[in-house]
Amino acid sequence: MTTRAFQKIYTKIDNITKATVTLRADGVGNDELATVGGKLAQVVKIMGQNVTLQVFAGTEGIATNSEVIFHGEPPKLKVSDNLAGRFFNAYGEPLEGGEAVEGEAREIGGPTVNPFKRLQPSELIATGIAGIDLNNTIVTGQKIPFFADPDQPYNAVMANVALRAKADKIILGGMGLTNDDFLYFKSVFENAGALDRIVSFVNTTENPPVERLLVPDMALTAAEYFAVDKGEKVLVLLTDMTLYADALAIVSNRMDQVPSKDSMPGSLYSDLAKIYEKAVQLPNGGSITIIAVTTLSGGDITHAIPDNTGYITEGQLFLRNDSDTGKVIVDPFRSLSRLKQLVIGKKTREDHPQVMNACVRLYADAANAKTKLENGFDLSDYDERALKFARDYSRKLLAIDINIEITEMLDTAWELFSEYFTKEEVAIKAELIEKYWKA
Amino acid sequence: MKTTGRVNGIISNIVIVKADGPVGQNEICHVYVGDTKMMAEVIKVVGDDAYVQVFDSTRGLKIGDKVEFEGHMLEATLAPGMLSKNYDGLQNDLEKMEGLFIDRGSLTDPIDYDSTWEFTPLAKEGDKVSAASWLGEVKEQWINHKIMVPFVMTGSYTVKSIVKAGTYKVTDTVAVVTDSEGTEYPITMVQKWPVKQAIRAYTEKPRPSRVMETGVRAIDTFNPLAEGGTGFIPGPFGAGKTVLQHAISKQAEAEVIIIVACGERANEVVEIFKEFPELVDPRTGHKLMERTIIICNTSNMPVAAREASVYTGMTIGEYYRAMGLKVLVMADSTSRWAQALREMSNRLEELPGQDAFPMDLSAIISNFYARAGLVKLTNGETGSVTFLGTVSPAGGNLKEPVTESTKKAARCFYALSQGRADSKRYPAIDPLDSYSKYLEYPEVREYLDEKIEKDWVDAVYEGKTFVQRGKEANDQINILGDDGVPVEYHERFWKSELLDFVILQQDAFDDIDANCPIERQKMMYKMVLDICRHDFTFTDFEQCSQFFKGLINLFRQMNYAEWKSEKFEQYKQQIEQYVTEKSK
Q1: CA of B461 vs chain A CAs: smallest distance (Å)
Q2: Whole-complex ipTM
């Protein structure tokens, strides 16, 4: 941001904390940006003449006589088609040099779409992964996170999903991404020749954590440009939202707010909802779909971050290492896509809902049998068959390295049914059994 | 003259205003950012400083910006024309807003002030009337919308004049009443009421005695909700709270349904927007939307308005109740409302209670639930507001403050269990943890004796015992192994599975199974109970499980078959035959 001639420069700061500075100033608007000693800051509190600013990069080195210049406007992003193929930092400045993008400057974190103007999501996004397409089908306009342990290959899975999904634009919002992961995304996108439909806003672990707070809003402002203005199908990838929430906690802590559960700010639910609710199916055919990553600590989903996320998003996907087959699978028990009902059996084959449920039920029977086995009990014939089914189901369908069409997934499931079970045990509507049972 | 003020401090959506005159607690004011006018509510006053929470984003607001106080609290506008409307938490009509986005300060009228209605007088000159007395009625959709003496008019009045039957504008004076001193009060079809106060224009509030049918077996059969009663549905995410609430909103036996989407997902509301205008209410043959009002303050809409939304919904519910109607108010989710209270209390730097919620959370929740109820109106008719709220307990922990406070206030508890949801046993209402206090009411027992059959409540308890015993047997089997327990244990377990699969589980996405009328529930329940009462003789546990699996399959097909259709009867016969063969 450049200084404009008429701007007043303040040179007396009264208070400095780790993340904020307070000074006396007039005519300052709430949420407005400022530069404090060359660092970007935002107004977070005004009390009479006293204005408190949050300095994104931290206040190290700022002196009481550092220059403070107010920009007179909230954070903005310049949007145009030229965003495509570019990598930006949290402020929307091009990474690794390059020309700044020219275009209309739009406020980030703008207003909400009127719910009455939204359309019901109805278009399926196929990923080729049966753990998603068969059991937890994703729909345009949906928001869904991966709940993953830090050691699981969530970024790789997400990059895969992004490339296979038929989206017009993919927008990557990286928060606290390690440099290695950033380079991984970059090379995957480049190798796939998909760079021209990808826009990235990245804050790596090398950048100050508070800067991360701008990344989702930047990414979604760009997404809204392509979806609303251009009517495109936009897929937004946000990784890792846990690190975003951690940054929120840092800020609220430094602002002396009373923490609620797990040291998170009391407004965590609203803060996360503001981001996720940008997912939308628009009347012009454009849509924003959000796939995010929330890393868990020790698989604990009752922690405030995954817990609040779960209440906001339309389902969640769990990755699990299946010890029986040695594959990473999408856990059929704990994963859920809430919007799948809108497409399964409607946009996909009629037997999809029942086949999906039967598979999961039989897989659950296998899990029970496994518990029995571990407790040293004898297995019944049914238990034995359920276990065999589970192994095949995991290997042929749930594993994330499978890439097949949904109809093929359904056919595979029917094959497994008839291989291991009787019609009664599968307990699906009689009409469907008649039509699809593989004799 | 209105009190005005200037902005003197901003912390997120809390604005401190220096006022130049009197300011009331909870008074509404408007804060100006340039030409944009944003609504706000006074939540604390310290000297000349009024702390107001703005129902909108305060971005760009500056010290010294203008504020105007309105001299009244947050009010709902009550008039014919509210049915089928989609409001935000402050009763702005979402449909009237222009543009794709809700821009700041988008204020729209809750009703159409130009609309005209066919008015029929019910009162005549000289009648003694008081607040909520019916003066006349208009047809709103297919209900008789009563035009009443405004609730704010305390004391008694005499009707001085009333217009003849005919078409009038909603703002036309339809009656004039006088008080004892002869002062005249003109009355139109529109009245206003402060949402945070209960409308008490009724003579008494008797105990609920009738059951409100919802078409959900796990509720109607096992833990019925009373008309004018209260209930709540706590459950971790993914347990199916919203699907259950939607099912109830489609099927409940109510004349007016108010859905408050409070801090939840926008796509869920869109589902209602799209489906309800299409779906037909089987009881009346009318479109569902015609009896529905949606108050929609989704999670990304301003937090402060979220708190207001539940009150707006309840107030509209009480208004229709005063017309002698059966109203169902549903809020999804009251936890989001509690969180809005928490955010506010936090910004005011109040000393926090448990989990940083405000100390008076429990009192606020109780007060709110107490607004529901069956009431006897001044003219002897009855009306009811049934309230059903969902609670989203943090981490699925039912010991958190919102769940605990609600448990004290609500009479029905529908606990959704993660375990049931994980094994896709929907609705995931836990049959043992959940309860309906109404089953204990002698009035309700009597009503069910008559409505369903004699000693129905005993049959319900009997079923619950079968479920309980099944669970205990299953625990034993899990500990001792299939062979380690007598076959009777397996029989007990499978009987509870039969009850579970046939009665408790229900496919909300199947056209037929989704809605199970009470007559059908009665028949299915009795069939299942008869089987549970029967002692079978199985040689081993494999035979037992085979038998019940087959039986469950037949029953499920029956649940999917149209009521009394050929197929339905076929399955029924098959079941009878299947059981008789085994009983020989």
Answers
A1: 29
A2: 0.86
